[in-house]
Amino acid sequence: MKKTILTLIALFLWFTPAAAKLNVVATLPWIGSVTEAIGKDRINVTVLVKPSQDPHLIEAKPSMILASRNADLLIYNGLDLEIGYLPLLIESSRNPKIQPGHPGNLDCSQFIDVIERHQAVDRSMGDVHPLGNPHYHMSPTNMARIVRGITQTLSELDPANSAFYASNLKSFEDRLKEKQKQWSLIPVRGKRFVAYHKYFEYMAKEFGFELIGYVEEKPGIPPSAGYLERLVESMKRTKPDGILVTPYYGTREVEALSRMTGVKTIIVPHDVGSVPGATDWFSLMDSALQALK
């Protein structure tokens, strides 16, 4: 009899499904990375954009729509960085959980202090973001706020694991404090750079370096010959410490400018996975700051 009862219990445990994991869709690799740091094995994370892709130029694909259809939570950068594909994904998914205003729709930009907002925008200004500069994830201050927001959202959607998520948040914050001590010793404060795109403004503000010019004549617009000529003369006069560019876009133009001015090119990783060794957000920041040094 005892053996029969034990057998029945074993069968019950075998056929009882494990608690379902939350299905999380993240638009960008850094979002997927920090979300996995909080959710670990209690969530499944699908990242839509590859680190080798320009996040401004993504198009919706059927695989993205399918992932969104099955999502419990959609997490995205916001500030219209995903404007070219995200609205279509949300609509086509027909998933009520991730519609705007619902608990499964999380815009990370709500947690930060946005810079470079524009009251009025027209095409003559180039490819500007009216809601503000969307490249905010290279700021530890911003990331601390974002991770707390992600933790709160996961806990609300999955209250049974809220203590688990809170514990992982504590580990993330402790690691961040230690890393900030290390990063403060890297000698980038006071340096002066020219950048290809307006990608490093939040990072510059936090770490104390200066952006004194841009290779793009206007955001998203390749430079004209006349503009480049003026930029070369300006760089020869001001002697910046380097020209900053991300691995995915603008390297050819920056290398040509480097040859004309003698100012070195500095390729700065822009997202998790964009260079070898940048396997999570912390190692991404390590790699970026070492490049600036």
Describe the structure.
The chain has 293 residues and is an alpha/beta fold. The longest helix is centred in the middle third of the chain and has 22 residues, at 162-183. Residues 6-17 have low confidence and may be disordered. It has a 4-stranded parallel sheet, covered by helices on one side. Helix 2 packs across helix 5, helix 3 (62-69) crosses helix 4 (86-93) and helix 5 (140-157) runs antiparallel to helix 6. Helix 4 (86-93) links the parallel strand 3 (73-76) and strand 4. The protein has helices at 2-15, 29-39, 62-69, 86-93, 140-157, 162-183, 201-207, 225-238, 251-261, 281-292; strands at 22-26, 43-47, 73-76, 105-107, 192-195, 210-214, 242-245, 265-267. The protein is globular and about 65 Å long.
